[in-house]
From TrEMBL:
PANTHER family to which the protein is assigned, alphabetical: CYCLIC DI-GMP PHOSPHODIESTERASE PA4108, CYCLIC DI-GMP PHOSPHODIESTERASE PA4108-RELATED
Protein name as catalogued: HDIG domain-containing protein
PROSITE patterns: HD_GYP
Highest taxon in the source lineage: Bacteria
Source organism of the structure: Bdellovibrio svalbardensis
One Pfam family of this chain: HD
Length: 308
C-alpha cells in the first residue's frame, strides 16, 4: 500500500477524522487513530511529547484529509461557530505552524509561500478581533522546542505588540506576521542546540548562532516571490537598538518591522528555549536586555504578558 506523510500540527480540534492515521515504527506502519476518532486532548499531547512531527495516511485518502483540513480551518476562523476559543486557537496555531514548515522545507514553492502569506493576514484578524485569542494561543506550550511553533508564538506577540503601537495597516501587519513566522529559517538545517542561553554557548555554537539570520536571508534572497520586508525580518531579527546584534545595525538602520520581531523574539526565546516562566519573562527582558530593545516595546510586552 502507498502512504503519504501528513504533519501532526494539522491534526487539532475535536472534529472526527474520516481517514485512518498511521505512525511509522521501524519501517512498519502502525494504525494510531481510526476513522471516526479525533485528535483532541491526551492523544495530541502524547504525540507532542514523542516529538513526532509526521504521521501517515493512505495515498487514496489524501483528498479526504485535505477536506478535513479545510473544514477544520473554516470552523476555527468562523466567529459564529459554536467551538470554544481554545479549540479554535489550537487548530489555527497548528495551521500556522504547518504553513511555516511547508515554506521551510520548500522555499522555492510559490504556492506554499502565497498560502502562508494569505493565512498570515487571516491570523492577524483572528488575534486582533478576539479578546481571548492571544491568551489561548500562548497557552500552547512548545514542549518539543519546535522552531516553527516558536515562529507562531513570535508572530502572535508581534501582532499584539503592533496593535499596542497603533499599527493597523493590513499589508504591514500581514508582512510582519509572515516575517515573524519565517524569521528562524536559518536554523532549519542547523543542528545547534537552541535550548541554552546565549551567554552559556561555547564560542563555536555562538558563532554559528550569530550566522543564522544572514544564512536564512541569503537562502531566500533570490526567490522572487519572497517579499523584501520578509527577507529583511529574517536577516535583521536578532539586531538590537544599541547595535550589539550579529550585523551591528542600530535601531535607526533596521527595518521597523524587524525591530518589532526582534523584541517579540527576545521574549519567546526566554520562554521557549531558556525555560523562563511567562509571568517572569517580561521582567527578565526589562533587566537583562535593557538598551537592546525599545523601552516602549518592553513595556508593552510586559502589559501583554500580564494580560494572559
Amino acid at each position: 500500500m502507498d502512504y503519504v506523510s501528513i504533519r501532526v500540527s494539522t491534526l487539532r480540534g475535536d472534529q472526527k477524522i474520516d481517514f485512518n492515521a498511521y505512525i511509522k515504527i521501524n519501517e512498519k506502519m502502525i494504525l494510531y487513530l481510526r476513522r471516526g476518532d479525533s485528535f483532541e486532548g491526551d492523544r495530541l499531547q502524547r504525540l507532542k511529547e514523542k516529538k513526532l512531527k509526521k504521521m501517515y495516511i493512505l495515498t487514496d485518502e489524501e483528498i479526504t484529509y485535505r477536506n478535513y483540513l479545510q473544514k477544520n480551518i473554516e470552523v476555527a476562523y468562523d466567529n459564529t461557530s459554536n467551538k470554544d476559543i481554545q479549540t479554535r486557537a489550537e487548530i489555527i496555531q497548528g495551521a500556522q505552524q504547518n504553513n511555516t514548515e511547508e515554506v521551510f522545507e520548500n522555499p522555492e514553492n510559490v504556492e506554499s509561500y502565497n498560502y502562508a502569506k494569505d493565512a498570515a493576514g487571516k491570523y492577524v484578524s483572528f488575534i486582533m478581533s478576539n479578546a481571548q485569542a492571544l491568551t489561548s494561543v500562548m497557552k500552547l506550550e512548545n514542549t518539543d522546542k519546535n522552531i516553527a511553533h516558536h515562529g507562531v508564538t513570535v508572530s502572535t506577540l508581534a501582532i499584539a505588540l503592533a496593535q499596542k503601537l497603533g499599527i493597523s495597516d493590513p499589508k504591514k501587519t500581514q508582512l510582519l506576521t509572515l516575517g515573524a513566522l519565517l524569521h528562524d529559517y536559518g536554523h532549519h538545517h542547523s543542528s545547534l542546540n537552541l535550548s541554552q542561553p546565549l551567554d552559556k554557548m561555547n564560542p563555536q555554537d555562538l558563532a554559528n548562532w550569530k550566522k543564522h539570520p544572514q544564512t536564512g536571508a541569503e537562502k531566500v534572497q533570490d526567490k522572487k516571490h519572497f517579499d523584501q520586508a520578509v527577507i529583511n525580518i529574517i536577516a535583521q531579527h536578532e539586531e538590537t537598538s544599541n547595535g550589539t546584534g550579529p550585523l551591528g545595525l542600530r535601531e535607526k538602520d533596521t527595518d521597523p518591522l524587524a525591530v518589532i520581531v526582534s523584541s517579540a523574539n527576545a521574549m519567546d526565546r526566554l520562554i521557549t528555549f531558556e525555560g523562563v516562566p511567562q509571568a517572569e519573562a517580561a521582567k527578565k527582558l526589562m533587566i537583562e536586555h535593557v538598551g537592546k530593545h525599545p523601552l516602549q516595546h518592553i513595556q508593552f510586552l510586559n502589559e501583554i504578558m500580564k494580560g494572559l
